[in-house]
Structure formats: structure tokens, C-alpha cells
């Protein structure tokens, strides 16, 4: 039995337990009233008690079924209030009608008194106020519970997203700070200090920018595409000190996309993987093609490089973290794929909703 199924069963049991306990408690007052004031007797008092519990449960459960079907728990507060107020009035009227029918049936068929049907049906004071009060309390409690549950889930997802994002950024920082990367970069810089001081200074600036970005961008979940590209260009320029002509980057980026935001270090991660699992393994190196375009209110980012997909090897930790971040950040509206293309190339594609603000989707 899956965990989600178990949680669903647990919530269903809690719902029915609260329904039964709540309406039993409320109906106890009315049972006491008819027993002491109207002399119903023990049997009819118990029968009236059972019917009161059943009426309350049936009416509110009908509301719950409709509310779930209409997905009211996801509505903004203002729209929810507009939907709820007519529902309370309708439930209160049904509560009055059913209770009056119950009352009429008892006094006519069981007590043997001659009661006017229409007068019995139209009796509303104070039962209408009772119905309004009970239905308002029930509906308020129901939606407050769902609002609380939604807030708990949102807080949990935000915490998980923050954790995964920070882990991904730490992984990225670790990759940049690993001895192999630093050793190659510093050796390249060392060899340039005498031969070409200007290029050496540029290389030091690039390495400094990369480390600064990794350290100070780690608290941001999203970053503008133009900022991400600036980081990518610095990273490529620094890596070209080692690969020289073996590493080439070609870009095809649509205009006016620079302000749209994407997960921080996402393109950089794809470029880094393209170098590590593609270019670095080829004697002649190769070309990395980076394309960014918009289509159907989404941004499509593709990174294609020479290489093959090892079917016996699982996706790296960085890509796994990226997929989890996309799922939490965009609620299933974003996607990531890694596919083999013709001529022994690999294509990584990100599909992200077009988004400028920082808030979650």
C-alpha cells in the first residue's frame, strides 16, 4: 500500500470521525430539548437524535462533494467567499425544510395531532437562524482546515525547493572548486603570466567571477536569462584556456528573452555536463550548440553536444536535482529531457513557463 493511498485513507477516516462527533454533539442539545420540553419519550427522543445527526451529515457531505468537484479549496479568498455565501443560505433552507418535514411527520403520524402542512413547512423561527449558524460554522471549519493543509503543503514544498536548490548550488560550487578544475585553471593562468599578462589577468577575472557567482547567487531560486548567460560565457571562456580550439560554443538566442527568469545555474549545469561528458572525451573536441527560443508561452532551452548516452549509468546528481527543482518550482508545468540525436550527439532540453517575477508559479 502506497504512502499517498494510506494518507488518503487516514484523511477520510478523520473526516468521518469529525462529522459523526460534531453532529452527535450538536444533536445532543436538541435531544434534550424535545425530551424535556415536548415530552417525546425515550424512544422518539433517540429517533429524533439519530435523524438530526443524519440530516446534518447528509447536507454537509453533499456540500463537500460539490466543493471538491468544483475545486473550491484552490479558489482565492474573495472568490471562495462569493461561492460560499449562497451555499450557506441554500443549506440553511434545506435544513429548515427537512426538519419541518420531520416535525410534521412526528406530530401528525405518531402523536396523532392535526397539523396544517403548509404552516408546518413555512415555520422558520428560530430554526432558520439555527441552520444558518450551524452551516456557517461547518463550512468555515471545513475551508479553514483545507486552507491550513494547503499552507502546510506549500511551506513544505518551498522548504524542499530551497534545500534542493542549495544542494544543487553546493554541488555546482564543489565542481568548480574541485582540485582538477582549479589545477587546470591555475596552471593555464600560470603559463600565461609571462607569455601573455593581459590574458592572464582576464583569466583571473573570469575565475573570480565564477566563484563569486557561485557564492553570492546561491540564495536565489530564479535568475534572469541574461545573467545566466553572462555566467555561461565566462565559464566557456575560462575552459577554452584548457581546451583551446577543441571547445566551441555556438548560440542561437531569440531577442527579448533576457529578462525572463529561469532556475539559477540551470544552463551552466547543462553546459558543464556537455563539456564533461562530451567535449572532454573527444580527441578533437567539438561544438556545443546553445539555443533559447519562446514557443506557446514557454521558453525552450536546448544544449546539444557530441557524445552518447550511457544507458547503464544513471543520470548525474546535478541533473536529478535540476529535475526536482523544476517539479517543485513549476508544479509540473516545466520539463527536462535528455535524448540521443543523429551523428552521435546528445541533446538536453529545458522547457520553462515564461516568467519574470520572483514568486513561485
TrEMBL record:
Transmembrane segments: 14-35, 41-59, 80-101, 121-141
Keywords linked to the UniProt accession: Kinase, Membrane, Transferase, Transmembrane, Transmembrane helix
Lineage of producing organism: Bacteria, Pseudomonadati, Bacteroidota, Flavobacteriia, Flavobacteriales
MF annotations from Gene Ontology: phosphorelay sensor kinase activity
Pfam families: His_kinase
Organism: Neotamlana sedimentorum
Name the record gives this protein: Histidine kinase
Location of the Signal transduction histidine kinase internal region domain: 168-247
UniProt entry tagged with the keyword Kinase: yes
Superkingdom, natural source: Bacteria
Gene Ontology terms: cellular component: membrane
Amino acid at each position: 500500500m502506497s504512502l499517498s493511498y494510506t494518507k488518503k485513507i487516514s484523511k477520510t477516516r478523520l473526516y468521518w470521525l469529525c462529522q459523526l462527533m460534531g453532529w452527535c454533539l450538536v444533536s445532543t442539545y436538541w435531544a434534550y430539548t424535545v425530551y424535556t420540553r415536548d415530552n417525546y419519550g425515550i424512544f422518539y427522543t433517540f429517533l429524533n437524535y439519530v435523524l438530526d445527526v443524519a440530516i446534518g451529515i447528509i447536507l454537509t457531505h453533499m456540500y463537500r462533494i460539490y466543493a471538491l468537484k468544483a475545486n473550491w479549496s484552490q479558489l482565492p479568498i474573495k472568490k471562495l467567499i462569493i461561492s460560499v455565501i449562497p451555499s450557506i443560505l441554500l443549506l440553511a433552507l434545506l435544513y429548515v425544510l427537512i426538519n419541518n418535514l420531520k416535525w410534521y411527520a412526528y406530530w401528525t403520524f405518531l402523536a396523532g395531532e392535526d397539523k396544517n402542512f403548509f404552516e408546518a413547512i413555512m415555520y422558520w423561527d428560530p430554526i432558520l437562524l439555527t441552520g444558518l449558524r450551524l452551516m456557517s460554522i461547518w463550512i468555515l471549519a471545513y475551508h479553514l482546515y483545507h486552507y491550513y493543509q494547503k499552507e502546510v503543503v506549500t511551506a513544505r514544498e518551498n522548504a524542499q525547493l530551497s534545500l534542493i536548490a542549495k544542494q544543487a548550488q553546493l554541488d555546482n560550487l564543489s565542481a568548480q572548486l574541485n582540485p582538477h578544475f582549479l589545477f587546470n585553471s591555475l596552471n593555464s593562468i600560470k603559463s600565461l603570466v609571462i607569455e601573455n599578462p593581459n590574458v592572464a589577468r582576464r583569466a583571473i577575472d573570469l575565475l573570480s567571477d565564477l566563484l563569486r557567482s557561485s557564492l553570492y547567487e546561491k540564495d536565489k531560486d530564479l535568475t534572469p536569462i541574461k545573467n545566466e548567460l553572462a555566467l555561461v560565457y565566462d565559464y566557456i571562456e575560462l575552459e577554452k584556456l584548457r581546451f583551446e580550439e577543441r571547445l566551441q560554443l555556438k548560440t542561437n538566442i531569440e531577442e527579448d528573452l533576457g529578462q525572463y527568469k529561469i532556475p539559477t545555474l540551470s544552463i551552466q549545469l547543462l553546459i558543464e555536463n556537455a563539456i564533461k561528458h562530451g567535449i572532454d572525451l573527444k580527441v578533437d573536441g567539438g561544438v556545443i550548440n546553445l539555443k533559447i527560443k519562446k514557443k506557446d508561452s514557454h521558453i525552450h532551452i536546448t544544449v546539444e553536444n557530441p557524445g552518447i548516452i550511457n544507458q547503464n549509468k544513471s543520470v548525474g546528481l546535478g541533473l536529478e536535482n535540476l529535475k526536482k527543482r523544476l517539479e517543485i518550482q513549476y508544479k509540473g508545468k516545466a520539463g527536462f529531457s535528455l535524448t540521443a540525436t543523429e551523428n552521435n550527439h546528445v541533446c538536453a532540453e529545458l522547457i520553462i513557463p515564461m516568467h519574470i517575477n520572483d514568486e513561485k508559479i
